[in-house]
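Appendix B. Raw example, untouched.
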Amino acid sequence: MGRAVPAVVSPLLRIAPHGPLPDLADGDAVIFTSEAGVTAWAALGGGAVGRAWCVGARTAAAAQILGFEVAGVAETADALVALVAQPGPVVHLHGRFTRGDVVGRLQARGLRVSGQCIYDQVAQPLSDEALGVLGAEGAICVPLFSPRTAEILAKALPTSLRATLFVCAMSEAVAAAAADIRAADLRIAAAPTGDAMRKEVANCLTSRHVT
């Protein structure tokens, strides 16, 4: 039986919904590339209008709860670009910070796709508890789930950093964004899913004897 490992939770960003919502007609399709998009849509008073193309099972489940008909689910935005088959109109409901040019690549395929920013990913400072851990000797496993959080952490790390960091990135894109983090090791999850990240973190804790 494994031993308990202390965890410090210090969110690096906050989702801040903002309008206006796009004017969608019944039957129009949307693209959600994260669960945050679904949450922001609902917070702004949006309801289900038609089909939704989603990145990730959690995103798809959240869209279904709102009443969308999930037309397709992909593990990554790249895979979703290849999957979307509806000629249009389709609206990508995204955050202020985006990657992969989903709209442009779908338009290049001849699809009628537009984008609408409905939330911001506001950077948050590291908590006092997190700064205390980073400023002390010891090994720390750091899971990073998005390129945005990787970039925020790289800028937020204290100059007095004494801890040894072992980073677990959810994808190649997250790993690339974490390049400036002073890490002893950087692992990439086998798939961009919550289950794969849990396994990678468990492997990190076991193999690196993180305390």
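End of appendix B.
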